[in-house]
Amino acid sequence: MAINPSIKYVGRITAPDANYTYGSGKDETAPGAGDGTPYELGRANDIFGFQQALLRSAGIVPSGNSETQLASEYTQAIVEIASGRGYNYDDSGVADAYVLDVQSGQHGPASLFDGQICEFVAGATNTAASTVNVNGLGVKNIVGTSAAGTITINERIRIRYRLGTTDFELITIPTVETILEAVKGADEDVTSSTTLQDDDDLKLTLEANTIYSFEAEIKFFNTGGAGDSKHFWSAADGTYGFQVLGTNQANTSITSNGMNEGTSAGLVLGIVANNKNYTHVKGIIETGGAGGVFKLQWAQNVSDVIKLTVQADSYVRAIKIQ
Questions:
Q1: 311: domain CATH number?
Q2: Do residues 111 and 93 share a domain?
């Protein structure tokens, strides 16, 4: 709540104008005249209330020290509110009908305005075109949600209000959490073996019932011999995918194959001695109900006493699509 000075201090306030919609302060016409704007309990509490509301919204306990331009807890509170506290909500609705409640300690908007941003973690996955009610201000359509699964349970969702069409539009939020990456920290060797082994580093844990795009760059190296290399991608049963293999350096080729029930068909790569043989792989992975670990397996294609190495800085990366 806020005091309206032009109503509370009738006759003791300068009339409202373009600079002060609700009136401004007024000096006494003479000492003791009693016709100036009073400083009394209501005005003091109006200021105290505003200051303490800022601190409460930011979860700040006052230090007890006076504010300065270099150290201001009120300014800190404003920065936190503007940085996200003011537009993050709790969802108490159901699939297709989201209800956004003000989070603890926060103040909700009094109205909807053009460009207004709201964020929330969805409590349910949508099945059809959806609506939202922000702080009890009325049910509005969310444009862009006609397809099932556009809003996913436990995903952070951002929407923006459009005054002209009186609806919200869905805004995609790229998040770090949807990108998985593993980078090889040190060289790893295999000698005299054609038995596939799990790479020590190049593995990712995937969610169930999810589609990812992925890419990997594997650096194979040896000093000679006829061993060459072979590699597979392994995942939990129910995982399907498609990959395209491209190599460079002196041995250039492009190969493609599918992944069926968790393990790809073997891809054999001829190794050029004393060269870094870069193997760039990319593709799509679709996990089943189990999810699980997606990992590189590799070995020599022909057993040889000259070691085959997968070098440090090789990597695998997956980006969640849906």
A1: 2.60.120.760
A2: yes
Distance CA 308, CA 271 (A): 9
- Asked which of 145, 171, 197 is the last residue of a domain, the reply is 171
- 244 Cβ partners below 8 Å, 6+ apart? 254, 255, 256, 281, 282, 283
Q: Based on the fold, state whether residues 215 and 308 are members of the same structural domain.
A: yes
For residue 204, the cross-strand partners are 294
Residue 234 host element (H or E): strand 229-234
The pLDDT, as a whole number, for residue 133 is 98
Tell me the Cα Rg of the chain: 32
- Is there a single domain that holds both residue 273 and residue 144? no
Contact (CB, 8 A) for 76 and 58: yes
How many CB atoms sit inside 10 A of residue 157's CB?
Answer: 25
pLDDT in tens, 56-111: 998 999 999 999 999 999 999 999 888 888 999 999 999 999 999 999 988 899 99
pTM above 0.85, yes or no: no
Domain ranges, residue 152: 85-171
Do the beta carbons of residue 253 and residue 246 sit within 8 Å? Answer: yes
Question: What SS3 state is found at 55?
Answer: helix
Residue 196 lies in a domain: yes
27/254: higher pLDDT: 27
Write down the residue that tokens 């444009």 correspond to.
143
Residue 24 lies in a domain: no
Within a domain: 281: yes
